[in-house]
């Protein structure tokens, strides 16, 4: 009797085991013959915001995702046969997803201490001395004659901010009364930076010429700044290291690729949506 029971148990395991083998290709449902797999559900869950699934039992989440995928599949089947536009759009999505997957792995690696220190040295160059930052405003015009007239107007008591808002051609600072905010000299073109460094707080410069035109500058304030300590900005450095790795990977892959561009095609073709059958 015991032998018969053991034999029956072994036979049941033989029959049932393969039917319940679970891998990414395990079919969890079919819609008009099209399969939905366990791997697809797992990938779908990985793409969900954890906050949306927090506290939701696995059984309930399973039912919700499977129901959504069944609905999605049933509707998507109505797109067959695919139009040229659908085919093109799916190929774009495929490339974008795969590229993102590759770069996500590159960015996912935890930066080493040496990489973080190298990023710090690159950003701050081993600086130990304080640097001077300036807060200035300017009025930018096209000609020296305009700049001279503005300088004269300011000497007669004209309001710098009002004149900047009215006459400055700088689209960013002009509407903000010429305010440039805080900056370090190396962030500005040389003639502008040299003029600022030679000024005293509250002083207005004579017209200064750069490749952008003629500037009348007002030095609002200046201050000393110390470079941040390494330990204080490790998180920011880690982000920068990851960005640099991603950019380097992109440049590497492009450089190693054989790229052949078709010559003679007009950019006007971008507007020919009829080529997609629309």
UniProtKB/TrEMBL annotation:
<keyword id="KW-0697">Rotamase</keyword>
<feature type="region of interest" description="Disordered">
    <location>
        <begin position="255"/>
        <end position="278"/>
    </location>
</feature>
<protein>
    <recommendedName>
        <fullName>Parvulin-like PPIase</fullName>
        <ecNumber>5.2.1.8</ecNumber>
    </recommendedName>
</protein>
<dbReference type="InterPro" id="IPR050245">
    <property type="entry name" value="PrsA_foldase"/>
</dbReference>
<dbReference type="GO" id="GO:0003755">
    <property type="term" value="F:peptidyl-prolyl cis-trans isomerase activity"/>
</dbReference>
<feature type="signal peptide">
    <location>
        <begin position="1"/>
        <end position="21"/>
    </location>
</feature>
<dbReference type="InterPro" id="IPR027304">
    <property type="entry name" value="Trigger_fact/SurA_dom_sf"/>
</dbReference>
<dbReference type="InterPro" id="IPR000297">
    <property type="entry name" value="PPIase_PpiC"/>
</dbReference>
<feature type="domain" description="PpiC">
    <location>
        <begin position="131"/>
        <end position="221"/>
    </location>
</feature>
<comment type="similarity">
    <text>Belongs to the PpiC/parvulin rotamase family.</text>
</comment>
<dbReference type="InterPro" id="IPR046357">
    <property type="entry name" value="PPIase_dom_sf"/>
</dbReference>
<keyword id="KW-0732">Signal</keyword>
<dbReference type="Pfam" id="PF00639">
    <property type="entry name" value="Rotamase"/>
</dbReference>
<keyword id="KW-0413">Isomerase</keyword>
């Amino acid at each position: 009797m015991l032998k018969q029971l053991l034999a029956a148990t072994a036979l049941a395991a033989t029959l049932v085991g393969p039917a319940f083998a679970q891998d990414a290709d395990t079919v969890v449902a079919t819609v008009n013959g099209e399969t939905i797999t366990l791997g697809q559900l797992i990938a779908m869950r990985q793409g969900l915001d954890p906050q949306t699934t927090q506290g939701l039992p696995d059984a309930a989440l399973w039912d919700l995702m499977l129901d959504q995928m069944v609905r999605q599949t049933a509707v998507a089947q109505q797109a067959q046969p695919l139009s040229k536009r659908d085919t093109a759009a799916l190929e774009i999505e495929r490339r974008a997803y795969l590229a993102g997957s590759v770069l996500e792995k590159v960015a996912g690696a935890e930066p080493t201490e040496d990489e973080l220190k190298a990023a710090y040295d690159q950003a701050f160059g081993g600086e130990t001395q304080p640097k001077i930052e300036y807060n200035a405003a300017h009025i930018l015009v096209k000609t020296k004659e305009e700049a001279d007239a503005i300088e004269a107007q300011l000497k007669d008591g004209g309001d710098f901010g009002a004149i900047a808002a009215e006459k400055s051609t700088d689209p960013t600072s002009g509407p903000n009364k010429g305010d440039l905010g805080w900056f370090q000299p190396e962030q500005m073109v040389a003639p502008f930076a040299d003029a600022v460094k030679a000024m005293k707080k509250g002083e207005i410069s004579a017209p200064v010429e750069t490749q952008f035109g003629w500037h009348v500058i007002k030095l609002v304030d200046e201050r000393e700044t110390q470079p941040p300590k390494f330990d204080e900005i490790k998180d920011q450095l880690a982000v920068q290291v990851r960005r640099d790795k991603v950019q380097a990977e992109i440049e590497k892959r492009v450089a190693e690729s054989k790229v052949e561009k078709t010559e003679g095609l007009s950019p006007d073709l971008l507007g020919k949506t009829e080529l997609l059958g629309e």
